[in-house]
């Protein structure tokens, strides 16, 4: 069997596949997040412990030898480790907002734009540059104690294999990597006041690093490949590799990706260009801060269960009886397709006559409008695949097809883990048929009348968003 490991923000998963990509089994464990005052952190020992636990459960459940394993996980944030890959402090999550004042300053003085023009990455508070700069100002002893500032999957790879600290071009893309040379841009490091911390940046392994397992969770000697991180891994797992084709990941993060061979560093600085395993090929990424997390908050607040969502969507008309949601719930504001650290969610059109269904539908519509905005900015011209936890709701998929006004190639299952296996197979020279592995499970067509309705609603969404952004800057 082939094992894909996906170390997510709220869930750690391991999936087993056979040689033609059939998903044999999945094991998962939740991992915690601590949130207070804009600070969002994770316990690295908990994360690693749950990785080992899911691997042990998976290899016990499927009595087949492991041919190889691919590793992926959440991107951004700062995971400070010592020489053995062990934490020197809790991991700062990509959702962390403590560095927003630094981002505000860099937006005002031109540093933000300069970095984007050099690297194609628009910094946000939870990206490594601002977080490292914040730690330098407020926790320099943590940086002194660290051997490397890595990313989530890199910490796991080091612990599973005993290899040294390393990362790959996809994780390194934000915000220090020059996408043309695929090496760190030392001028960017200097601009962020981190020149004397340059040694903390993990060496970039291009292509991704490989090593054998030490025996925790996987049999000793099992071949493991590290990377790419979850967004490009999902693109691989969904078969999004041809220029112009796109992927929408409806997960905790609402991520829009479009494959491209064109590197355009003009225009409004937002999102990033993710370097892939093929030089000259990038993913133009617009990873919005809040996806299913926004819906989860609304469900929790209104007391709606997840299994009630489809029924509520079916029982509420398009437009949600006038209720509107701008779904920018993240403590660190928004990062795509624009950067607005102080932007917050807005709920309008609510009255005593509004129902729970109205609130749920308005939230799903708002997330759909945000996705449409991101995909347009990313340059989508071809087909669109969709994956993530949101695909489990058939009603939401129909709503998304209508809001986006295009067919959706739904790819179910553990798509990130699937992509991690395909990346590992490429690295080890194992012949797997990527077309067979990435075949969609369904195609959802939009309804023409509802699509026309939502096209008008999208223009209204952009108008409301412009007002909200203006208020956030005051």
From TrEMBL:
Determine the domain of life of the protein's source: Bacteria
The UniProt keyword set, sorted, is: Kinase, Transferase
The membrane spanning regions, by residue number, are none
**Biological process (GO) annotations?**
carbohydrate metabolic process
Q: Name one Pfam family in it.
A: FGGY_N
Please report the stretch or stretches of sequence annotated as the Carbohydrate kinase FGGY N-terminal domain.
1-206
Q: Identify this protein by name.
A: Carbohydrate kinase
| Organism classification | Bacteria, Bacillati, Actinomycetota, Actinomycetes, Kitasatosporales
